[in-house]
Amino acid sequence: MAGEATKAIDPKELWGGGRSPFSTSYGKMMMWFFLISDALTFGAFIVALGFFRYTYSEGVWPVSEEVFFHIPFSHGHFPLLYVAFMTFVLIVSSVTMVLAVEAGHRMDKKAVTKWLAWTVVGGAVFLGSQVWEWGTFIAGPDGLISTWGDNARIGWNPYGPPQYAQFFYCVTGFHGFHVFSGVVINIIILINVIGGTYHERGHYEMVEKGGLYWHFVDLVWVFVFTFFYLL
Amino acid sequence: MERDDIIEYSLDAHHSEEKGAKIRKEILKVTLILSVITAVEILAGVFFGKRVVSSGTWEVIKYSYIVLTVIKAGYIVLKFMHLGDERKSLRLTILIPYVFFLIYLVFILLNEAFAVDLHNYNP
Questions:
Q1: Which of B97, B76, B113, B90 is nearest to A21 (CA)?
Q2: pTM for the whole thing?
Q3: For residues A111 and B114, what is the distance between their CA atoms, to the nearest angstrom?
Q4: What domains are there in chain A, each with its CATH number?
């Protein structure tokens, strides 16, 4: 079980200069830097959304709880309920990810596998829900995708200004792409956990780095949810 | 000469089972806080929507959403991403530039957005 990392790292090595900046590993630091750049991209998207909302006078931009009120398998009127469910699923998958990281710090391979698997499941459920939301959004007020006349497309949508749908597709789509890549990365890490790669290595830091990315995805969703659905 | 004041990191950053139980309890506490805040936001969104309340109340609700979201973000970054457990140098390196950028972007939005007449834009 003793891998390379259970010995203290030779101070002359560390990052090659005898010192590790921020007292953290190279991979973790670079993941943080990448997350800052990605956060700025999403920040730019949300500020751009603000620009467009400014352009329109009061009452023209649709109120989201009047647009998003469907839930699967029902014809009732439940404003924002499904989005609340999606937010909850993503937060819970973040929690299972933190638990996986904590289990990794105790070298508890079984627990890491369990919690990481649940994180993957949560991510997949979120992705499926987002696909369903897109379908419902596109279908328009009559609820049928087959009637093209009132379907929401890039150039026009039945809810309000064209930019409403454009931002919906671009922001939730870009975020959904991040969720998808996060799920793929987590699956790869899960396969490695099950295969024992990290246990032999002596540390589960890869799980921690994957966790950083996953939490970032959750963080962005929290902001997208506030600025697109609530405000 | 070997410096002994710098504490290097070790990938062997393992903790015992008891410490693990304490950490898990804190994770649960943060989860509950996040869930409660989300529930409050959803309920406010459903029952105190923009068309339902007066414009003064809506202003208060609007800024409350933003404050609650920043609180949620803070908990996620500091506790779930463990930035709170990292060294202060890394914490500040990550947070300060980002916050500056964001304040700048919001400043531009609030002050200059009126000048960009986007929906009459005709190239």
A1: B90
A2: 0.88
A3: 53
A4: 27-230 (1.20.120.80)
Dihedral sign, CA of B76, A217, B64, B32?
negative
How far, in Å, CA of B65 to CA of B37, rounded? 10
Q: How confident is the model at residue B123 (pLDDT cuts 50, 70, 90)?
A: low
Q: Give the three-state DSSP class for A153.
A: coil
CA dihedral (A105, A106, A112, A114) positive or negative: negative
Same domain, yes or no: B29 and B52: yes
- CB contacts under 8 A, B 50-89 vs A, are 50-51, 62, 65-66, 69, 72-73, 76-77, 79-82, 86-87, 89
pLDDT along chain A (231 residues), means of 10: 47 66 86 94 92 81 88 88 93 95 92 96 97 92 86 90 92 96 97 93 90 95 91 84
Q: Is the same domain home to B48 and B96?
A: no
What is the ipTM score, two decimals? 0.84
